[in-house]
Amino acid sequence: MKNNKSGILLSLFEIALGILLLIDPVGFTTGIIMVAGVLLLLFGVVEVIKYFRTDAVKAASEQYLTKGLCALGAGVFCLLKTEWFTVAFPAMTFLYGIVVLVTGLSKLQLTVDMLRVKSKKWFLALISAAISIACAVLILMNPFSSTAVLWTIAGITLIVEALLDVVTWFLGGREQKKAADPAAEDKSE
Fold this sequence. Notes:
- This protein has 9 helices and no strands.
- By secondary structure, the protein is an all-alpha fold.
């Protein structure tokens, strides 16, 4: 479990994200875009201040002013044009589908890795990989009539995948511990 803390935290984050998407997908997305806008504004202000407080040669080579102005522009855009992201949703959906597909393929490697080390719970990773790949194909084919349906599917996908990942990591960790300490297996039987 020590090696999988970041994976478990990521899974818990995915569960929370999935729940929020199920509760209010449009409001949640708008909120995320606005938070991103505020963070970009803060980053932009810091970079502009850094530009004027740093030695001229270093400030020029690090391009603090350019980074700051770009971040400020992006932040203002996020805050004033949140509806643009809704209009651009099909492109973002495609990118999300690609991310889910890559995640599914990495889980497929995890399945093969578990098989190679003779883990008894390899099928959990396979189920998770299959769900990820199936959802990716579904998202990339985009048979949905509305954005809300897609967000609901995305929310459910995130929750199910994350729960399967936690179970896989937990059971896989127990098997690795037993393999490393055969005496522990004898005590548990």
